[in-house]
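Mods, move this if it's the wrong board.
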Amino acid sequence: MRDIDKDKKLEGKKPYGRIALIDCSTMIGGSMKILRTDFSNGFEVNRYDYPQGIDGINEFIASINNSDKQFIEMKQYDTENCVFPYLVKEDTRKVFLNFSTVATVTEEEAEVLSREEYDKRLAVCVQEKCLDCESYKEDLSGDNLTGHRGKLSLDGECYLYTQKSSEQD
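Not the wrong board. C-alpha cells:
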C-alpha cells in the first residue's frame, strides 16, 4: 500500500511509491476533468481519461494507493496534434502506467473535441490569426491545418506568431 502526500509536489526527489496530489482548477466552458501526470524525470507530462468507474482525483488516488498492481491501464491523450487545454477524442491510446515513476498526479479541466470539430474550430483560428504572420505559408494542396495543429490554440494563441512587417517602397 502507498501513502498519499496531499500538500506538496515531490520536486527533484524519487517518489518511492508516494503520489503527490495537487489541486489545479482552471475552468473552461464545456470542459471535462482529466488526469495529468508529471514524471520524476521532470520533463515528461501526459494527460489521461479517468479509468472507468472513477469520477474524481481523491477516488483515483485512493484506488492507486490501495492497488497491488504495478501497472494500471489508462487511456492517454496524444497532445502532438493539438494545444492544451483542447484535446482530440480520437487521438488516444491504451497504455499501462507504472505509478512508481510518477511524481505528481493533477486533476485538470480540458475540452475534448472530435477531430472534425477541432479542425473546424482550428480553421477559423488560422483565418483570424495566421494570415498576417511571418511564418504563415498557405498549403494549396491540403487543408492548411497540418502545420498549425500543435502550435495554434483554439483560443488564438500561438507561440510562433510574429506579425509581418509592412514593407514600404
